[in-house]
Amino acid sequence: MPNLRLALCQTDPWVGDIARNGDEVVRWTRQAVEAGAQLVAFPEMALTGYPVEDLALRRSFVEASRSGLAELAGRLAAAGLGEVPVVVGYLGRSEQPSPRFGRPAGSPQNCAAVLFRGEVATRFAKHHLPNYGVFDEYRWFVPGDQLPVVRVHGVDVALAICEDIWQDGGRVTAAREAGAGLLLVINGSPYERNKDDARLELVRRRAAEAGCALAYVNMVGGQDELVFDGDSIVVAPDGEVLARSPQFEEHLLVLDLDLPAAGSDHTDGLLLSDGLHLVRAELGSGSADAPAEAVRAEVAPRITDEAEIWSALVAGTRAYVRKNGFRSVLIGLSGGIDSAVVAAIAVDAVGAENVHCVSMPSRYSSQHSRDDAAELAHRTGLNFRTVSIAPMFDAYMAATELTGLAEENLQSRLRGTLLMAISNQEGHIVLAPGNKSELAVGYSTLYGDSVGAYGPIKDVYKSLVFRLARWRNEEAGRLGAVPPIPENTIVKPPSAELRPDQKDTDSLPDYDLLDTVLDLYIEGDQGRDAIVAAGFDPAVVDRVVRLVDTAEYKRRQYPPGPKISVKGFGRDRRLPITNRWRRG
């Protein structure tokens, strides 16, 4: 039985930076070859970054990707790496028109290629295009109609791209029909809670259906609202996990696979399942001997739910700050739980020396909140200052007559203005502290606490914010470090502190109840009647549904933030702002 040493490069490509991404492919390939790899694979669209969205519609970008791919093949050969096949995703174009989709020849495609001996040995396009949730690939691409099978050291390796295995049939079934010994899938699969379990179950099922081992390489890092967690996996046909990469970090996974020898059939062009045409390419010589010293397969341990979520929020924040050219962040630190958690995330993401926080007390700010903000700064070592908004507030109130909600919101808007002024003056990027519960029901002030370029906890319900705060403190204790968030911040009742003795429960149901109803309405897509039938108070449900529906205009103006749920606000959930439907 032939032996194949496979390397999966779990990397973090940057959208639009073809030169940088090409450099990374060369760097990681060199490491893989030095480890004895005979086949190297990178994630989906690793050359262009993913998703490229409407950049795919720019002909100049498509051509830059194509020429960058050819240049990359030459660079690998010039670096002495050309004898090892490298699978890399890129943005390509169709050679033939696609009448079924009304698209001409030259339309963009989500492609991958095998680079070998300085050439593009074969290329193919994604067959199944996702068009749900955050995905919009029918807007940009036309699907491919081939099953590429490359023969590497006596093993037939079938190739696929991400969604090709999330849908039944297609390249999975075709790989079995082609007699492949390995199905290699390159991916740009975004993170959401519990997806690692679903991903493993999927990979096991598809390996059984394909009748061969399956290798799944995924990207890491963040791109706008999406976070990629890696979690690259290799499984045997019987579902045994042979190797698995850690989540949320770049990683080179190398392992030896004993795989079935390729058959004698070299037939090209056969019509397989789903109208896929078999395309074969032979790369290199015959079977390779087993290495003198086998690589011990690595299976990274799983992490807890809270650790996974925290890592996703940190990864998304770090990527957004760094990839947009910023070095430092600015946060309004109130002493409340939301800004405290955002500050702790920021410290983990970019380092305490790059986190700048401002306490902006008004006449209604409690002393304990001011103290809690200062204590967090002391514990974490971030940069901290206090600027009172009282003089600004008094000046506004002297110039105009504001009462009630208008007076409360003025305080929030003064803080937002001050943050943006400091941001402009000092060059920090402002992080907004709003959580998903507040965004859902509109419990935020436009141009006030919604000010910012990125919202690290935008997709985190308030009850989960408290859980994450407790977990982060416990994790610090486990590591022998100082817990970053003061205990008083966690245990005191939440309050915006915009009027005397104000509490969030003055305006909203208890957060545990609120979040349960919100989860049913938003993630579960259940209507008002279904939620009431589940045993919830009709008056509470009616109120929550009304608040969610009427706050759509606010959410549209909120900054992006990392998606961690099945359905985050943004591309996941697209509802009209002007909307009279109130039944859920």
Biggest beta sheet summary: 7 strands, mixed
Q: Looking at the chains present, what oligomeric state does this protein adopt?
A: single chain
Strand order of the largest sheet: 13-12-9-8-7-6-15
Separation, N- and C-terminal Cα atoms: 59 Å
Number of strand elements: 19
Q: Please count the helical segments.
A: 18
Mean pLDDT figure: 93
Q: Which regions have little confidence, pLDDT < 50, spanning 5+ residues?
A: none
Quick recap:
By secondary structure, the chain is of the alpha/beta class.
How would you explain this protein's 3D organization?
The protein is α/β, with parallel strands linked by helices and 584 residues long. It has 18 helices and 19 strands. It has helices at 18-34, 59-78, 137-140, 163-166, 170-177, 195-210, 305-323, 337-350, 367-380, 390-399, 404-426, 436-441, 462-478, 487-491, 511-523, 528-533, 538-550, 552-556; strands spanning 3-10, 39-41, 86-93, 108-116, 119-125, 146-152, 155-161, 182-187, 213-218, 220-223, 226-229, 233-235, 241-244, 251-258, 277-283, 329-332, 355-359, 383-386, 429-430. α9 (367-380) links the parallel β17 (355-359) and β18 (383-386). It is elongated and about 85 Å long. The N and C termini lie far apart (59 Å). The relative contact order is 0.09. The mean pLDDT is 93.
